[in-house]
Every structure is written in structure tokens, then in C-alpha cells.
Amino acid sequence: MVRDFQSVIGSEARRQILQVEGRLPHVLVACVGGGSNSMGLFHPFYKDRSVRMIGVEPAGRGLRSGRHAASLARGSLGVFHGSKSILLQDKDGQVLGTHSISAGLDYPGVGPEHAYYKATGRAKYVTATDAQALDGFKWLCRLEGIIPALEPSHAIAYLKTLARSLKPKDIVIVCLSGRGDKDMPILEKALK
């Protein structure tokens, strides 16, 4: 249900990129907490096998620190909110605490469709730390004059890594799923 509501993101992106560029993008990039915005972007492109999909999870203070919310990177199969999916849990199935500089990504599980995309290889999932997300935030502000939310700042941060594997004419769509004005108190503290 959430995927269907959020799929307006991907449906519009797909229609607009075909209208403007006359071809599909090479890569889609979006942040993944619970995964609604990213699945909204990914799902309308699901059957377009030439389009790579990359979800960027919050690595918080680092995956080894235990202070992260990277369910797909460090979680295991379990049941959370009535759905079988991947979540951060202990050996007894108790949900673990999480951390992300972004409140919207600070979540211990991921929607089951993302777990399926990962298991089948349809999408790739990577991580970005709090520090990398802050760099992504500053980068987009400086280059485009857009103040992104901290959630998509994780996806923006991954663009620097992704760019090394792209050709000059490749098209990348990044889901900017929120405005940064809501994060100003966090950013003021984090960026001093």
C-alpha cells in the first residue's frame, strides 16, 4: 500500500526523463530507512532491467560501532510490525536500538520489498555514515543551492563514489525526499 502511494515519485520521474531525455536513466539512487520513498522511486522502473537501483542506508557512526540503522547491511531475517523482512535484532529476535543523524532513517527495519530486491539482486544497497551525509548535504547546498533533508543527503553522499563508475552521458536520478529546513536544529549543532 505504501509503495503504491509513494510510486507517484517514480512514475513521474520515469515519464519526465523519457520526455526530456528520450531514454531511461542508467541509475536510480535513494536513501533507505523503512524504504517508502526509495521504493516509490524504484518500483515503476522494476521491469526496466537496464536501470540500476541503489539504496543508501544510514551507517550512523559506522557499521562496526553498532550505532547505525543499516538493516540490509547488518540485519537478519525476522518479523517486525507483522511483516517478514530484514531487521536489526539480537539472537533472541529482540529489536535493537538504532542511530542515524537523520530522524527519518533512524529505524530498525526495512520494508519487505526491499528485502526481496536485495535477495534477488534487483537493487544494490550501500551505506553512508553521518559524516558522509553531512558532506553530501553541504555538497548539494554549494553546487545547486538546494537545502536537502538529512535523509536524501545519504544518497547524495554516495554520488561521489558512484560517479567514478559512470560515463559522461549516463543519467542518474537521485530522490530528494525532503527539505532540509526541518533539520536545521540538528545541522546547526552538527556543523557548529
What would you note in describing this structure?
- The chain is of the alpha/beta class and 192 residues long.
- It has a single domain, classed as 3-Layer(aba) Sandwich (Rossmann fold).
- Helix content is 40%, strand content 17%.
- The protein has eight helices and six strands, in the order ααβαβαββαβααβα.
- The protein has a four-stranded parallel beta sheet, with helices on both faces.
- Strand 3 (76-80) and strand 4 form a beta hairpin.
- Helix 2 packs across helix 3 and helix 6 (130-144) packs across helix 7.
- The longest helix has 15 residues, at 130-144.
- 44% of the residues are buried.
Q: Helical percent range?
A: 25-40%
CATH fold name, please? Rossmann fold
Query: Strands across the major sheet, in which order?
Result: 5-2-1-6
Number of strands: 6
- Bulk shape: globular
- Give helix and strand order, one letter per element, not per position: HHEHEHEEHEHHEH
**What low-confidence regions span 5 or more consecutive residues with pLDDT below 50?**
none
The tally of domains stands at 1
